[in-house]
Amino acid sequence: MTQNEPRERLHNEPNPSFLRRLTVATGGGMFLDGFVFATIAAVIAGTAFSRELGLSPQTLGLISASTLVGTMVGGPLLGYLTDRVGRKPMFIIDLCIFLVASLSMLFVTEAWQMIGLGVVLGVVIGGDYAIGSPLLGEFAPAHNRGRYLAVLEILWNVGYVVAFFVGFVVLSLVPDAWRFVLASSAIPAGVILLLRHGLPESPRWLLGKGRVEDARKVFAEVGVDPAAEGYLQEPETKTQWRLLFSRAYIGRTAFASLFWVCIVMPYFALTFFQSEVLSTLGIENAVVGALLGTMIALLGAGLGWYLIDKVGRRPLLIVPMFVCGIALTVVAFGDLLGLPVFVNVICFFGYLFFYGIMSILCGVYPLEVFPTSVRTSGLGLASGVSRIGAAIATFLVPVGFAAFGLAPVLLALAAVSFFGGLISVIWAPETAQKRLTETGARVVQDAKKMGSETVRHSTA
């Protein structure tokens, strides 16, 4: 390392304190996502909620699915709006809506109100997926962009664990306090909103819209050289939804959506179905088992965070996909093969560990493979498709278990993981250490086919 290198690195990257603040402000949205899912699950598991609202099993199902349905809509819709109007305004508006919806939980008296608020929360959560990761990624330096973005996925697990403890403790002591548990997400939301206030617009988005002087002001504010990270190579382009399905990008759209589906489909199914699986494995206390599983997945995510910029994206996706498929296959055949119980338990929790490793890529790959003009649109679409897959899994798994038993269901989920590994081998690019202008661009004969008004520019 030369004497000038530290100074050059500081000059070519945003101010470290700014990056830390932006990471926390962005990761707060992921924290809230996990938090909301856990609070709703905790409340539904209690008796006071269903008794007071007079809920049927069907209505409970609608409530549990409401947030998931909202994310299907929110990701693509708010992602597109963010590409049109900017990252900064949507970053604030999105969380303000979340805060109001959370506080409204204190006044729920009917099932339809709960369902409606669940959908609204899901819409803004899905939108935050599409807004937050691209905003952070467009500021983060190429050499460790993966670590910054991977923190977001880790915070989802942290939010889930924190909310699970809060819900479990509060409802154990005061079962009728379910409204306060549901509204408790307003507390971290308020803190995160304060952190987001005053954050600048993405200079990549500004340059893409031709607002060069505004971008230069942002560069001066965060202390970065405009020539760094390929900022000045950012082409001025229009936001066009059809670009995601153009000849140049349809493969990336398919990859970003399908690999995400193959990660979350088995996980969401096993999360909602975990008590039956754990009972089969000989773990009687489902609460303890669920907590242990969440912590193991969190450890896996931590390892993934450490490795993502060291080994690259491809191996961190391909290897865990196949390991997850093998682990679920072993658990499925555990009883038939007469394997010891501890083998099945190790394989099940091994699945959760390797799921955690590759789960961090859900917030990394989708934003790296699309250009700035449709980056949030592409990520929002991929997140919406992933939630459709999760919803299908959570609906079909109980039906399949009742009709065929545990082993066929686990084999089907293993097949999803194997399919994810296969498409990753074929389609997954290596985007580590590369600038977003490289990873999101592509050489084509006619630049207008990319939704761009510029001439061709080079890519990695």
Question: Could you explain how this protein is built, in words?
Answer:
The chain is mainly alpha-helical and 460 residues long. It has 21 helices and no strands. It starts with a helix and ends in a 21-residue tail after the last helix. Mean pLDDT is 84; it is low at 1-10 and 443-460.
Considering the chains and any ligands shown, give keywords for the structure.
460 residues, mainly alpha, 74% helix, 0% strand, globular, disordered C terminus
Describe the SSE topology.
Blueprint: H1 5-12, H2 16-45, H3 48-53, H4 57-85, H5 87-104, H6 111-139, H7 145-173, H8 178-183, H9 186-196, H10 203-208, H11 212-222, H12 250-272, H13 274-280, H14 286-311, H15 313-332, H16 334-337, H17 341-359, H18 365-368, H19 375-404, H20 406-427, H21 436-439
Helix pairs in contact: 2-4, 2-6, 2-7, 2-9, 4-5, 4-6, 4-19, 5-6, 5-9, 6-19, 7-14, 12-17, 12-19, 12-20, 13-14, 14-15, 14-17, 15-17, 15-20, 19-20
Which range best describes the helical content: under 10%, 10-25%, 25-40%, 40-55%, 55-70% or over 70%? over 70%
**Which class do the helix and strand fractions yield?**
mainly alpha
Largest sheet: none
Principal-axes geometry comes out as globular
How far from one another are the termini?
26 Å
Low-confidence stretches: 1-10, 443-460
Percentage of β-strand residues = under 5%
How much is the average pLDDT?
84
Q: How large is the count of helical segments?
A: 21
Question: How many strand elements?
Answer: 0
What is the helix/strand order? HHHHHHHHHHHHHHHHHHHHH
| Backbone CA Rg | 22 Å
